[in-house]
Design brief:
Elements: H1 2-18, H2 22-33, H3 38-44, H4 54-90, H5 109-123, E1 127-128, E2 134-136, H6 137-140, H7 151-155, E3 165-167, H8 172-181, E4 186-195, E5 207-217, H9 222-237, E6 243-250, E7 253-262, E8 279-288, H10 290-295, E9 304-311, H11 312-319, H12 327-330, H13 333-336
Parallel strand pairs: 1-4
Antiparallel strand pairs: 2-3, 4-5, 5-9, 6-7, 7-8, 8-9
The structure holds 3,4-dihydroxyphenylalanine.
Domain Aminoacyl-transfer RNA synthetases class-II family profile: 117-330
EC number: 6.1.1.20
Organism: Candidatus Dorea gallistercoris
Length: 339
């Protein structure tokens, strides 16, 4: 019996030594220590051993078992370590290789220009608000003093969803919404997309963007409008910039004006950029018409206000000296990357 145990022990240890993969080790475990294993068989045959020898043999079986188990464990660890090392060798990272460059997107010139305009007005205490692109005729026209049949409606021909709903032609629609919803003091700008049934060319698009401005409070006058837009122009185009207010007509403001800025390219002398005039038109504005205030539930005896509307694309084209509006919509990365 003793000899048999000795043989099993040696045989098992040898098998462990020659095992080359973890699966072989498992075979060894099953063969010698498993339920039907050789060592287990010895234990089972203990009944044939003389009673006085049993403790001795039992102890020897246990010792053999412990030894085989330890050898299995050690061998398994060794194999795992070797496998890990091999894997690490294969996965070696060459830090001197050039990195793969990630393509990072780029802000659109419109976005850059909008953020600049927002920065200027937020700095003056304005809030940025938004309105819907699909708008009631009521807010886009009616409440802005443009009733049915008004010629201004022709100028801003647009896409009708039905008789009462249009794709808004101007962000001025947000003026009416804000005045209706809130009480003065109101100081907001509202950027967004507008739609007109225009043919595409270098300066026109059926869909473009505007930024609306509205201030309503007690004692607001044209002087406040002038001061505000002067600061805006200087911030946007540089401290040398001069502004010129030319009388104009908009149905929802009275008086109304268009604002020109001195050409930031030639300083006003006249160049290709300003078509030789020294001035560049940038926006429309005026004092909010009392009837508009009234229609939006604000008492014109108590409050007054001013409003203005800027074309965002126009600002972007001017600021970045882009001479064709279509470039802004093509989203050619080679173009966009430049700004
Ligand atoms: N909504 C006008 C347009 O699209 C621009 C405009 C003019 C807006 C005068 C204003 C304003 O708020 O006071 O042509």
């Amino acid at each position: 019996m003793k000899e048999k145990l000795q043989n099993i022990r040696e045989e098992a240890l040898k098998a462990i030594q020659t095992a080359d993969v973890p699966e072989r080790l498992n075979d060894v475990r099953v063969k010698f220590l498993g339920k039907k294993g050789e060592l287990t068989a010895v234990l089972k045959s203990m009944k044939d051993v003389a009673a006085e020898d049993r403790p001795k043999i039992g102890q020897m079986v246990n010792e053999a078992r412990a030894e085989i188990e330890a050898a299995l464990e050690e061998s398994k660890k060794k194999m795992e370590r070797a496998i890990r090392e091999e894997k690490m060798k294969q996965e070696v990272i060459d830090v001197t290789l050039p990195a793969k460059k990630n393509m990072v997107g780029h802000r659109h010139p419109n976005t850059i220009a909008l953020e600049e305009v927002e920065r200027i007005f937020v700095g003056m205490g304005y809030e940025v608000v938004e309105g819907p692109e699909v708008e009631y005729d009521l807010y886009n026209f009616e409440k802005l003093n443009i009733p049915d049949g008004h010629p201004a409606k022709d100028e801003q021909d647009t896409f009708y969803v039905n008789k009462d709903i249009v794709l808004r032609t101007q962000t001025s629609s947000v003026q009416a919404r804000i005045m209706e919803q809130s009480r003065p003091p109101i100081r907001v700008i509202s950027p967004g997309r507008v739609f007109r049934s225009d043919e595409v060319d270098a300066t026109h698009s059926p869909s473009f963007h505007q930024i609306e401005g509205l201030v309503v409070d007690k004692n607001i006058s044209f002087a406040d409008l002038k001061g505000t837009l002067e600061v805006f122009a200087k911030e946007l185009f540089g401290p040398e910039t001069k502004t010129k207010f030319r009388p104009h007509h908009f149905p929802f403001t009275e008086p109304s004006a268009e604002v020109d800025v001195s050409c930031f390219k030639c300083g006003g002398k006249g160049c290709r950029f300003c078509k030789g005039t020294g001035w560049i038109e940038i926006l429309g504005c005026g004092v909010v018409h009392p009837h508009v205030l009234e229609m939006c539930g604000i008492d014109p005896e108590e409050y007054s206000g001013f409003a203005f509307g800027v074309g965002l694309e126009r600002i972007a084209l001017l600021k970045y000296e882009i001479d064709d509006m279509r470039l802004l919509y093509e989203n050619d990365i080679r173009f966009l990357k430049q700004f």
